[in-house]
Design goal:
Layout (H helix, E strand, L loop, with lengths): L1 H5 L4 E5 L1 E2 L2 E2 H8 L8 E6 L4 H10 L3 E4 L4 H9 L11
Parallel strand pairs: 1-4, 4-5
Antiparallel strand pairs: 2-3
């Protein structure tokens, strides 16, 4: 956490469930430092439209379901081709 607050990487791939907080709470901590070029991707095994809607309301645009397409989904987002790739099953 301390390292991430000093220098943010180009992409943060974060699990929804983290020890002591969730991925949305971490996003709120880092939000003021995130720039347009930083990717913040939440991953979860939970496929829940209401949860995704909450992510969007919080400002999180990239969500990946941990399924057999997880690597393809991540690559599409990291390459800026998320609009060309169907991220939800």
């Amino acid at each position: 956490m301390a390292v991430a607050q000093k220098t943010l990487p180009d992409a943060l791939i974060v699990d929804y469930k983290l020890p002591g907080m969730d991925g949305v709470e971490l996003y709120k901590v880092l939000q003021s430092q995130l720039k347009d070029e930083n990717k913040y991707i939440i991953m979860s095994a939970i496929e829940d439209g209401n949860m995704v809607l909450n992510f969007i309301k919080q400002g999180i645009r990239d969500y990946v379901i941990k399924d057999e397409h997880v690597l393809d989904s991540l690559i599409a987002i990291l390459e800026g081709k998320e609009d060309d790739y169907y991220l939800f099953s």
